[in-house]
Amino acid sequence: MADELKDIVLKYVIAEYLEEGSDPITFDTPLISGGIVDSFSMVSLKRFLENKYKISIPDDQATPEAFDSVDKIAVLVRRFTQA
Amino acid sequence: MSYSEKTRAMYQGVLQGLMDAGLLKQERYIHSPQAADIEVEFPSGSSLKKVINMCANNYLGLSSHPEVIKAAHAGLDSRGYGMSSVRFICGTQDIHRELEHIVTKFLGTEDTILFPSCMDANAGVFEAILTKDDVMISDRLVHASLIDGIRLCSAMQDTFKHSDMAHLEQKLAMHQDRRLRLVITDGVFSMDGDTAKLDEMVALCRKYDAMLLVDESHASGFIGKTGRGTHEKYGVVGEIDVITTTFGKALGGATGGCVSGRKELVDMCRQKARPYLFSNSIAPVIVEGVLKVFEILNASTERRDKLEWNAAYWRKGLQEAGFVLKEGDTPIVPVMLFNAKLAQDFSRLLYEEGVYAVGFFFPVVPQGQARLRTQLSAGHDKHHLDKALGAFVKAGQKLDILGKSRQEIIDRFGM
After folding, report:
1. Between residues A44 and B1, the one the model is more confident about
2. What 3-state class would DSSP assign to A61?
3. Are A43 and B158 within 8 A, CB to CB?
4. Is B132 in the same domain as B244?
């Protein structure tokens, strides 16, 4: 089954952070530790997820580790949408 | 003593790692005043070599101008060497406030506050004017000092793609729920030499009720018809809420910087900006030098006009020779070499030919975008530029990169 949540997040990350001519990324590409998303820019990703999925991610859980790949972001979002 | 051999070895390992990666920064000792022609000892211990300087921020050639030196001497005699105080205790002389008035008038703002450097201005301004209820939205290529200032501030942080106005608009729309929005950009981007589209940014900020902060360190004194800066070039003088700039580049090249802008924002800096509160006043000798610089600039646009001519001549010469350049019309002309080692080799060949221009590579610029950043000065005469062009062509021929495209250079040398 296609994972719609991960597709949406991947599409957002590509549009938001990748420059023209960048290498393609996948669900498990390291985003923060790989230098694709810097800590400043993480804010807009958090806000996007919160608005899109009507959730609130506490700052202490919005860590660079939790945001480090589309796979990990999906785990985080599901934790709040299923709560 | 707690500096054990183990600790020493740890630091030595880090430094060796930088050396092995070719990333260790090394100083070149200059034995002459800053100018178009300088005498350099490099490597350390070698005999002096006379070279043309193509990488100073001495845009207006005022760093060693006789009138500026004379004014500084006079300031030393009349106001002394140092203040031994921060501004608000007993470190403000009449000339400090006089310089603030003159900068305000020159930039077309409401008020100005001096800082020990623009790095300090950028470190202090954000936390002085914003709180955690606000958001800072910065261009992704802003200068490191702005990034450090943003990190020191409790307001929310966000970014927009370099000079992408549609992306900035999305961000402004997204952050409408914050108390205040502050958009942050360089006027002239120091690594690429392009300019921020300040007319469009002012319009967007008005539409979305946001303030605009512009770092004009690579613009003040020479961008725009009378050298006021990037805001003059784009016809928005009086509409920038905060300008930060330096006296360490075109405006005499010594030290010092400032925050200039809306009166209340400057007043907030005077109350809360930590580098202003906890660091010494600019030395009187420098204040007097900068006052003379503004007197020279207010009397004539001759120097910025010559700089503009030099930049156009240099850019055209490099283009005709077949180098890959970053587009732009400022005195920062980056020669793209893409590969870090190629940039270093090119710089070395130039030095052998009597031209001083250093290579920039990751992490100063993105991976695969290594370059030589050349910077023009009103202190350059045509013969300097012709000689430097000759050296560039010779080095370019030797490395066989003239007339080669980005892809051809990358294919041969790698990223």
Report:
1. A44
2. coil
3. yes
4. yes
Same domain, B326 and B272: no
Active site (annotated) includes residue B279:
no
B313-362 per-position pLDDT tens digit = 999 999 999 999 999 999 999 999 999 999 999 999 999 999 999 999 88
Same domain, B98 and B177: yes
Q: Which residues contact B174 (CB under 8 A, 6 or more apart)?
A: A44, A47, A51
Answer yes or no: is pLDDT of B44 > 80: yes
The Cα–Cα gap between B282 and B278 comes to: 12
Q: What is the CATH number of the domain that holds B388?
A: 3.90.1150.10
Range of the domain at B97: 66-299
Name chain B contacts of A64, Cβ cutoff 8 Å.
none
The tokens describing B400, both together, are 């066989």
Range A41-54 average pLDDT: 87
Q: Report which secondary-structure segment, H or E, holds B250.
A: none
Specify the residue for token string 């007097």: B288
> Does residue B244 fall inside a structural domain?
yes
Contact A40 B138 (CB under 8 A): yes
The string of pLDDT tens digits covering residues B163-175 is 999 999 999 999 9
Looking up residue B86, the CATH number of its domain turns out to be: 3.40.640.10
User: Does the pLDDT of residue B222 top 50, yes or no?
Assistant: yes
Q: In this structure, is residue B21 part of a structural domain?
A: no
Question: In 10 A of CB B37, how many CB atoms?
Answer: 15
Domains of chain A in sequence order: 4-81 (1.10.1200.10)
Which is more confidently placed, B292 or B366?
A: B292
3-class secondary structure, B183: strand
Task: Work out the angle between the directed axes of helices A42-53 and A4-17 (0-180°, nearest 10).
Answer: 140
Residue B213 and residue B282 in one domain: yes
pTM for this entry: 0.93
- Find, among B15, B49, B43, the residue nearest to B28 by Cα: B43
Residue A39 pLDDT > 90: no
Residue B249 annotated in active site:
yes
Same domain, yes or no: B34 and B78:
no
User: How many structural domains does chain B have?
Assistant: 2
pLDDT attached to residue A1: 42
- Enumerate the residues of chain A whose CB falls inside 8 A of the CB of residue B157: 39-40, 43
The active-site residue, picked from B96, B171, B175, B218, is B218
Q: Exactly one of B143, B249, B306, B404 is catalytic; name it.
A: B249
